[in-house]
Amino acid sequence: MSQPDVTHSIEVQVTSIDQLFNSLDPFPFRERDLDKSAEDYIVGWAREMPSSGPIKIVIHLPKAQGNIWSEHEVEVAFHHYFVYRADTVGRELRELFRVGRRSLAIGFVVLLACVALAEFSISTFGHDGLMSFVNEGLIILGWVSNWRPLEIFLYGWWPISDQRRLYTRLAQASVKFSFNENETA
């Protein structure tokens, strides 16, 4: 029997909603970038949460700030920002795969050329003395030329894909305000 997904909360304490957003960003509120510190804090906490279940961002702020922005406006702004970040990371992933495909094509051609040269060298000069060193060096060079594409396709894309998945989860996060009763703005 499966459990329903547990909502995981990220708690943020601010004195003003504006602290969450980049003050130099000229776009309207719902399209503004998050402040770098706020993004790092939210993403850092989200990384430490289990990878399943919804996320709720609870913003603790003075009661007077509740009249300036609504939870829905902040939630929409977070949604826009994290969708943008997920798209940006998705483009980085596509670029990495493009570089990987190009590197794989080059590496495969170099491997074929090195194997062909080693075979030619063996048939022409034999496999004795210095030629043994040259032949083995050609084979090693051919395989080393494939190191980068193998690194990309075996390991390099996972962290980027995980980051995109995290931003997508954060884009779906709900936002709730928690007012500090004895504080004013």
Any chance you could write out the topology, listing elements then pairs?
Blueprint: E1 8-13, H1 36-47, E2 55-62, H2 71-125, H3 130-144, H4 147-171, E3 174-180
Parallel strand pairs: 1-2, 2-3
Helix pairs in contact: 2-3, 2-4
Entry summary:
The protein is mainly alpha-helical and 185 residues long. It has helices at residues 36-47, 71-125, 130-144, 147-171, and strands at 8-13, 55-62, 174-180. β1 (8-13), α1 (36-47) and β2 form a beta-alpha-beta unit.
Describe the structure in your own words.
The chain folds into two domains: 8-88 and 172-180, no CATH class; 92-162. Helix content is 58%, strand content 11%. The protein contains four helices and three strands; from the N terminus they run E-H-E-H-H-H-E. It has a three-stranded parallel beta sheet with strand order 1-2-3, covered by helices on one side. Helix 1 links the parallel strand 1 (8-13) and strand 2. The longest helix is centred in the middle third of the chain and has 55 residues, at 71-125. The protein is rod-shaped and about 90 Å long.
Please describe the structure with a list of short key phrases separated by commas or semicolons:
single chain, 185 residues, mainly alpha, 3-stranded parallel sheet, 3 strands, 58% helix
Domain count: 2
Extract low-pLDDT stretches.
none
Shape annotation: rod-shaped
- Rounded average pLDDT: 87
Radius of gyration: 27 Å
